[in-house]
Every structure is written in structure tokens, then in C-alpha cells.
Design goal:
By secondary structure, this protein is α/β, with parallel strands linked by helices. It is 36% helix and 12% strand. It folds into three domains: 5-270, Type I PLP-dependent aspartate aminotransferase-like (Major domain) (Aspartate Aminotransferase, domain 2); 274-355, Aspartate Aminotransferase, domain 1 (Alpha-Beta Complex); 377-436, Molybdopterin biosynthesis moea protein, domain 2 (Alpha-Beta Complex). Helix 2 runs parallel beside helix 11 (257-270), helix 3 (77-91) crosses helix 4 (109-117) and helix 3 (77-91) crosses helix 10 (243-250).
Length: 438
């Protein structure tokens, strides 16, 4: 029987009905419903960034379930984990490695802000011709060539897998290249927390990554904001010992105990029947994808619990909404649907009926233009700025992170110069204004 120490403490505290002369201000009075379980760091509740009690015990349970050297909780999503990962990779880089991070171009905006705040140097790897700007699949050979072009090994190689469209990197092969070249592989696995619990585990920690983050709330039954930061057994002890400090550098000093309780409770579910439910959801999703393909829908390769169609995304999303089906994301080229065990067989039938057989064509994917860097990320993002209309930005230097969320993938990075091709890409996605260096 897996222990749930956070839930047990919070529940016991609520049942004891103390006079609460501590925050939060609701004092446990159930105006909305969950207030009795919403606590602060009272005696016995432990400290998320210096855990020694119930949080430490719960995190050890999570690490045993994921098979990691250590797993840490975040109540502020993977964004907090990403920032902490960048700091850990820079501060504990392999001997002889530089402060450069070699990163696939489709990073989340939280990586960009972390690199700017920590003054990391970033060398970008671009997607292959014909790929979406939201994907950047790397071949082991391409990564090996990119690493050989650097005078010293980078602090890490950074990839996103699965990415927002569900494309998955060959993590095992990339990890082998990284380790042979004297660097580490970091994976933003925000959309793949469930991958360890399938029949054929495909979680980055199973495939050789050194460090990764998962947004537990995206694919597991966890409240929004619940996330994990995982470290492999290849990471040195001092790096593992520094994780809480790295998280506290960027995280709130008042984490949500509702979120922490949900992370604690999902441990028990993962040790019980949730893995079987995930496998059943995967099988249902495979059947749904096959039915869509049979009707002529262009189903893109993706992780097992995602359906990505290359089509006129806004038109298809509207069609689905009219039938009561809400998609995760839509752009001019794709519509993305996220699946979990909570989606019933009836949900899948409703989706197929709503989709129908009329397949609107998608225009060819626009090329991903390369950019010229003029300033560092830090200089551009933390310096003066002004807002201009997108049509007036050609030739200007980007001073902000221009990326709607979702998918939060910036087409142009701070410090890079806007070209006409970039402006066309922004127009395509409906961006009207951007921040530029004055």
C-alpha cells in the first residue's frame, strides 16, 4: 500500500477544526468548497523547498514509482521546473563544459526567460525543412555534428518531447550522443508524465535523459499546476542536493497544498489501477486515430494520448465546438486533442461524429525562417523596449517573448532581428503587435 502522507496530514488537520490564526484568509471556512484542505506551512505540513517530513516522504514515493534517483514537486507547473533545470544545468555542468545550452528551437517560453535571467548562452538547433515551427525533431547524426562544431561541450542539450503537436524525439539515441560527447540531455516532457506507465515505457527517464520535467496535470488526474522535476542516477549528488534551492529561486514561498495533495494522491492511483486505465485510454485513442484516418483525416504521428490532425485548425475546432467538443489547440495548420482515461468511449464516439467526413485541406506548412542574433537574450529581454505594430517590425530587434500560450513557442527570440519572413509567420498566427528594442 503506497502512503499518501500529505493527504493524510491535511485531512487530519481539517478534521481537527483548529482555530486558524494563520493564512490563508478563509481560515478553512468552506465558501467555495475545498478551503478546509487549503493550508500553509503550519507545524507538521513540511516545507516544499526544504522538505524533511511529509513532502519529502511523498516525493520519495513518486521517485520510486517513476524509477528516478529523485523526484521533486512543483505547484507552479513545469514552467517552474524548467527554470530550475536551467540553473541546475549551468551550476552543475560537466567538467570542461561551457555555459552554453544547445537547444532545439521549439522551446517553451519559460526556457527563454530562464536563460535570460541566468545569462545563459543558447545555440539554437532548427527544424528540418518542411517541419512545423512547433516541432524540431533531431537525428542523432545532426546532433553529433552540432556538438562537434562547438569548441567545448555545452552544459546540456535541451529538447522538448513530446512537443505541442505530439512529435517525440529519439531520446535514447540523443542521450547516447550527449553522454559520448561529455554533456547532459535535458528534456521538457511537460506533456508526457504518463509515458512511464504504459506497457512499453517511453518516459525520458526510461530512455536515458539526465533531467526532465513533467506537467502532471496535463495527462494525469492532478490539479492544474502540479508538476514533477526528475533526475536520473547519472546526476551527481550535489546536483540532486541543489534542486530545492533552484526551485525556491523562482517559486512562490506559498505553494498550494491543494495541488501538493493532488500530487500525493496520484501516487496511490499510479500504484493501483491508473496504469491499466492509461493503457486502455491509449488503445481507445489508437482506435479513434485509425477511424479518422479511414475517413481521410490526416493524422500526424504523435504520443499515444494525443490526436493531431494537419488541417484547417480553426475551421475544424469551430466544427467540433458546435457539437460540444472542445479541442486543446488549433492553428492554421493543425488541431490538437488531448486524451486521458477520463475521456469515456462515448467521448470518442462524440468526437468522431462531430468530426464527420468533410476534411478541409490545410495549406502547406510555412518554412521556419532562421534569425540573426544581434543582442544576447538577457540584453534584449531585460533592456528597454517599445511596442510596435507587426507590420512596422521588419528590421527591428525583438525585445520580448512573442508567443501565445498555448503553445508558448516563440518564433523569434529576444535579441534577434525580425525579417519579412518572420513577419509573415506572425501575421499567419494573428499577432498584431510585438516588443522591440527602441
Amino acid at each position: 500500500m503506497v502512503s499518501t502522507p500529505i493527504y493524510d496530514f491535511v485531512s487530519s488537520y481539517a478534521r481537527s477544526s483548529p482555530s486558524r490564526f494563520h493564512v490563508p484568509g478563509h481560515k478553512g471556512t468552506p465558501l467555495l468548497g475545498p478551503e478546509p484542505l487549503d493550508l500553509t506551512e503550519v507545524t507538521g505540513a513540511d516545507d516544499l523547498y526544504a522538505p524533511e517530513g511529509i513532502i519529502a516522504e511523498s516525493q520519495r514515493v513518486a521517485a520510486s514509482l517513476f524509477g528516478t534517483a529523485a523526484t521533486f514537486y512543483s505547484a507552479e507547473g513545469s514552467s517552474l521546473c524548467v527554470r530550475a533545470m536551467v540553473r541546475l544545468l549551468l551550476d552543475h555542468r560537466p567538467c570542461g563544459a561551457s555555459r552554453t545550452i544547445l537547444a532545439a528551437r521549439n522551446v517553451h517560453r519559460s526556457f527563454v526567460s530562464a536563460a535570460a535571467l541566468l545569462d545563459a548562452e543558447v545555440t539554437w538547433l532548427y527544424p528540418a525543412v518542411g517541419d512545423s515551427a512547433l516541432s524540431c525533431l533531431l537525428s542523432p547524426d545532426a546532433l553529433d555534428r552540432a556538438l562537434s562544431d562547438l569548441s567545448t561541450p555545452p552544459a546540456a542539450v535541451w529538447v522538448t518531447s513530446p512537443d505541442y503537436l505530439g512529435a517525440m524525439q529519439d531520446v535514447s539515441a540523443l542521450a547516447e550522443v550527449c553522454h559520448r560527447r561529455g554533456t547532459r540531455l535535458a528534456v521538457d516532457n511537460a506533456h508526457g508524465a504518463y509515458l512511464h506507465f504504459l506497457t512499453d515505457p517511453r518516459h525520458p527517464m526510461d530512455l536515458g535523459a539526465d533531467i526532465c520535467c513533467d506537467s502532471a496535470h496535463k495527462t494525469l488526474p492532478v490539479l492544474t499546476g502540479g508538476a514533477y522535476l526528475h533526475l536520473s542516477r547519472r546526476c551527481p549528488a550535489d546536483m540532486i542536493g541543489d534542486v530545492s534551492s533552484a526551485l525556491s529561486l523562482f517559486g512562490s514561498s506559498s505553494p498550494s497544498y491543494l495541488i501538493l495533495t493532488s500530487l500525493d494522491l496520484v501516487n496511490a492511483a499510479l500504484a493501483s489501477d491508473l496504469p491499466e486505465q492509461l493503457r486502455q485510454a491509449r488503445d481507445r485513442t489508437e482506435g479513434t486515430k485509425a477511424s479518422m484516418a479511414q475517413e481521410g483525416w490526416p493524422v500526424c504521428p504523435s504520443d499515444p494520448l494525443r490526436i493531431t490532425l494537419q488541417t484547417d485548425g480553426p475551421a475544424v475546432a469551430r466544427r467540433l465546438r458546435d457539437s460540444g467538443v472542445v479541442s486543446e489547440y488549433a492553428d492554421p495548420d493543425h488541431v490538437v486533442l488531448m486524451v486521458s482515461p477520463a475521456n469515456s468511449p462515448e467521448d470518442h464516439s462524440t468526437l468522431l461524429n462531430a468530426l464527420g467526413r468533410d476534411v478541409p485541406p490545410a495549406p502547406p506548412l510555412p518554412p521556419v525562417p532562421r534569425a540573426t542574433s544581434v543582442l544576447t537574450l538577457r540584453e534584449a529581454l531585460l533592456g528597454p523596449r517599445k511596442t510596435v505594430r507587426i507590420d512596422d517590425a521588419v528590421g527591428c530587434i525583438c525585445a520580448g517573448i512573442s508567443a501565445a500560450c498555448p503553445p508558448a513557442v516563440p518564433p523569434v527570440m529576444p535579441g534577434e532581428r525580425f525579417s519579412e519572413e518572420h513577419i509573415s509567420l506572425f501575421r499567419r498566427f494573428g499577432t498584431e503587435t510585438v516588443s522591440v528594442v527602441p
